[in-house]
Amino acid sequence: MAKTDTKGKKLERNGLSDDQLRTIFRNMLLQRQLDNRGFQLNRQGKVPFALGSEGHEALQAGAAMAFHRGKDLLAPYYRDLGLALGIGLTPYEILLSLFARAADHNGGRQFPNHYSSKAAGLMSFSSILAAHIPHAVGAAYAMKYRGERGRAVLVTCGDGTTSEGEWHESVNFASIHKLPVVFLVENNLWAISTPIEHQMGQPEIWKRAAGYGIPGHRFNGFDPIETYGNVNEALDRARNGGGPTLLEGMCYRFLAHSTDDNDMTYRTKEEVAEHRKDDPVPLFERVLLDHDVMSAADVEQLKRDVLRETNEATDRAEAMPYPTAADLYTHLYEGAWQPWQ
Amino acid sequence: MATTNRTSPPFERAGLSDEQLVGMLRTMLLQRMLENRGFQLNRQGKIPFASASEGHEGVQAGAAMAFARGRDLLFPYYRDLGLALGVGLTPYEVLLSLFARAEDLSGGRQFPHHYASRRLGIATISSIIAAQLSHAVGAAYALRVRGENGRAVLTTFGDGATSEGEWHESVNFAAVHKLPIVLLCENNEWAISTPLAKQMGQPDIWRRAAGYGLPSTCVDGMDPVACYLAVSDALDRARTGGGPTLVEAKCYRFLAHTTDDDDRTYRSREEVEAHRRDDPVPNFERRLVEAGILSPEGLECLKAELLAEINEATDRAEAMPYPGGEELYRNVYADSTDPWR
Amino acid sequence: MAVSSPTQTTQIMNNVDAVRATLYDAMKNDPRTVILGEDVGARGNVFLITKDFAKEFGPQRVIDTPIAEASIVGIAIGMAMEGLRPIAEIQFADFIYPAFNQIVGEAAKTRYRSNGEYTCPLVIRTPYGGGVRGALSHSVSIEALFYHVPGLKILAPAFPADVKGLLNAAIDDPDPVLFLEHKKTYRLIKGEVPDGHYTIPIGKANVLKEGTALTVVSYGLYVHWALEAAQQLAEEGISIEVIDLRSIRPMDKTTILQSVEKTRKLLIVHEDNKFGGIGAEISAMVAEEALFSLDAPIRRHCAPDVPAMGYAEPLEHEYMSSPAKIADAMRELARF
What we know:
The complex is a heterotrimer of chains A (341), B (341) and C (336).
Chain A: H1 18-43, H2 57-66, E1 73-75, H3 81-86, H4 91-99, H5 132-145, E2 153-158, H6 165-177, E3 181-187, E4 190-191, E5 194-195, H7 196-199, H8 209-212, E6 216-220, H9 224-239, E7 245-250, H10 269-276, H11 280-290, H12 296-318
Helix pairs in contact in A: 1-2, 1-11, 1-12, 2-9, 4-12, 5-6
Chain B: H1 18-43, H2 57-66, E1 73-75, H3 81-86, H4 91-99, H5 131-145, E2 153-158, H6 165-177, E3 181-187, E4 190-191, E5 194-195, H7 196-199, H8 209-212, E6 216-220, H9 224-239, E7 245-250, H10 269-276, H11 280-290, H12 296-318
Parallel strand pairs in B: 1-2, 2-3, 3-7, 6-7
Antiparallel strand pairs in B: 4-5
Chain C: E1 10-14, H1 15-29, E2 33-37, H2 53-57, E3 62-64, H3 69-81, E4 85-89, H4 100-106, H5 110-113, E5 123-128, H6 143-146, E6 153-155, H7 160-172, E7 177-182, H8 185-188, E8 190-194, E9 206-209, E10 214-218, H9 221-235, E11 240-244, E12 247-249, H10 253-263, E13 266-273, H11 278-290, E14 299-303, H12 313-319, H13 323-335
Parallel strand pairs in C: 2-3, 2-4, 4-5, 5-7, 6-7, 10-11, 10-13, 13-14
Antiparallel strand pairs in C: 1-8, 6-12, 9-11
């Protein structure tokens, strides 16, 4: 991987315009800023919990660029802040979720980063690993059944989730019915404290695809352009009746699993530092600068914009009210509800 | 469906003595005759249920010959009559199970063909598909933790079981820990009424092994010698620290799923007849006779002997008493069964 | 019977026929309806409930799934979230455990966790119950494992007309419904079923027989046996009121309390085991709401506290109740 000077090499853009490249970068900056904001707010005692997605920025911004808003569906997992932003959620919505305010999409019910939005095509999910994957497959079945060509489902998960039975059952079902779904594994090498070698008997998840009779690819998830190329190709295949694809994007989880985790109990500073050299955010900044997609001044301005936007969203969300105690009882079933009737 | 391109080797004895070869044929004949007896007894109204394993005689006799009695452990599924016989279960014990008598190994609790015997190393199973896989893997882990080299676990399952999440979770765990276990798939192409094409996206179960980092083999399940070789190699590897192997034996289910099933509703007679040409029992009879290992008279003699044994076992088992109603309450816990203390 | 749009004509059906006819109408009338499960297609379900459906509606709507229960329910949830009306089948209730998380952790929480934005209009049908030599893995009752869960509805009708009316209600319902079909009643129980589409409200019990000496509350197969026992006691001059719950969650408090306040004695009869069973909740509710209307302790006549019935006939016989055993329980409480 090119770590420093990317100048001189031709930029492989996979068809992305300068505008799109800048959008990807903005999304990456925003994700990192919001991620850090969550951790800050937690350390300040303002939110009880936040999750780290640092290291997933390129993968998520690249994948989000391939997503067709208003057509595709996203079934994400809880480390997909950048994907949620990339398909249209705002920083304010993210902060409402962190602060668990009444105006949050889920009314403050769900853990942070468990967004859902029908309008954005973002499916509701729980914290149970792999439980959302059959839902994505069911949604893809619904699309195929209704003959909705040009639509597909993008479902993401971490490397650890591939060990769940439901992951297997879902990929198998999708492959039998050649459903319009892309299984994107964000392999960050760690499942909380469990490294990939304790997760599976060989380290390449994409190799499982052959066992299901579907295409499988692995790519550098620190490179948003390469990610976009892979996800776009797979989504296009799905949208055009070509069936599912298993994609494995390689990245790294720079932070602890969450604000409740201390990763120094199970991995070394040196390991993390080694991966930091590949940090996708400064790396992509370098690429854009080297190829004159952005100037240094543009980058500085963008960073200031992102920070200002995050600050404003923080203040605005914090000022919003919590849900009331009465909200505990709503939306259990349709209509009023008593177990005894 | 093509049954021609199997990797059937020319007749070779794979180091098996005449006695062992005839022993395998004996198990195969016994399996077939006992199976027919189960169906007869059901049609006569003497037992409520029997399940069918016709077509599995080759793989089961071969696998049983590779099993080291007194050392290895067997975690079978409910279509493994021949394996149970091959590792030492008697026809009388099988008939006690069919008649659900008090003397049955489960005390008449379990469905027919759900044998368990500590003496023989056969683990207790339920009817739940793939549930035995994780138990087998746990037992293999126990063997490894205790440093019991020279022992291995053999677990078997049908093609349909490979779709269960627990299959995936179990194979994955065995691969991560390189456990002493052989995963033998008896692929008979049908899961009750569901053909393989609706079970998975590509037709070769062995191809899944690479995705877990496991070695695999695919054998003609109609050939007991080939099955013996494949399972024997795999068990040897497992016993000597070489880790797990996935073995796929391609066979066919000649009869309906059980006495409660009518397979004419979902598959053609032509298909079944086409597979009958590969029937392992007459084929292996003929091979032994042609190789001069067994005379035609010797074969007839063997069949007569087995029939007599089955008749005697049937009469003896039928004459045994049922368990008493009070037996319902035993073995819920080690001690008192009262939930209020 | 509470029939929302009563029609003139009826047909005699058994419970299999009633499930089949109702599913057929749902498939015919709503292209969003799909059926998925093991052996539901070419085989037409192990009890032949969906026989020939695949031929008529095609394999896209009658889906033979791989053997993978968690994903059968999970995929149905995704279909429901995206606008289909899936009817998932678990071949036997005993096979539902691998799908426990999808039912309890996902389907029951979908509406709640998304604050009403996503819903899960899903029916999970499964045959349950014993008396058919089903042994340890083809005979269990599962209702008590699920009735603790807010977000689910659980129905267990006993009569063909109720099967149709409640299955229609389940299919129309905007929330996940676990629909339990007692497999012993499948062909044993016949009855008149009104033609045409009708629903029976979820959460309404049915007073099958009025009486004065005591109230029996039951559901499923044992409703039929309780009725039989009540007829026997009527000949002895003891008048029993028999209530068929039909709906386990929500449950009909009004009907139970009205009856108990009249008869002043309550016997709960169910096939599931007693400890933590449905009867426990009914007992607690009556104790909370009508203690001083009672002339005798509440009694529960349920299965013994063992994991399941064994295969051998005497083991099943010991586990299962019977009209005679239920009659004994009635007599004992009536005498109190």
